[in-house]
Amino acid sequence: MPTQQNPVVTENMQAILAMFEQVYKGAELLDFFPYPEEKIAEAYEFMKWAHEKQLRKGPKNRPYAQHPFMVFILVRMCGGTVDEQIAALLHDVIEDIHKSHPEIDRTAAFNLIQGKFGRAISDLAWYLTNPEGLTKENKPIWQAQQLEDKPEIRMIKISDKAVNGYDTIHDTPNNWDAAKLEYMVHSCRKVALLYSDELPRDLLKFCTNPETMGYIKSD
Asked: Is 11-213 a CATH 1.10.3210.10 domain?
């Protein structure tokens, strides 16, 4: 059984939290990384276009693009590969692009990603995409099986859960009850502990630390 993780907030975690606060205020890629890799810069702009008409669910009406950007920040700052960073930026494109561009279906979105970034990236994005018709009840089961079957997506998906947990605390949707809030925050911790032996130290700490994940809500 995994043991309780050290709760100390590292300097890197503090930097990630500071970046998240700035993203909430509108900071973008070049504000943090003035000289990004060419493909990351391209993926960032493509992601913003793909989600350009979406908003997050919270009352702050933030651009949806802030979510994959924050997932990217967490993956990058915790040592993810360039492919993992690009897939983090694009992880919701296949599932959600139709909300901004109704003429583009999932297959077309996959092909767009493959054409721009290669098959390895498009496969990662596909593995991170919930199947059409997946019920709310079956979603956790399917995602858990994906994490078991596709170890290459674990860092990205757990980072995705961490950002969702962070947003649950800092931009809580008005219609979410206490049970939903508890599930969103604690599901990240549960999955991170399950794969604790292989996660980067700071990502594991981020997902299991009360200060970063909001078990103690900050003002």
From this structure: yes
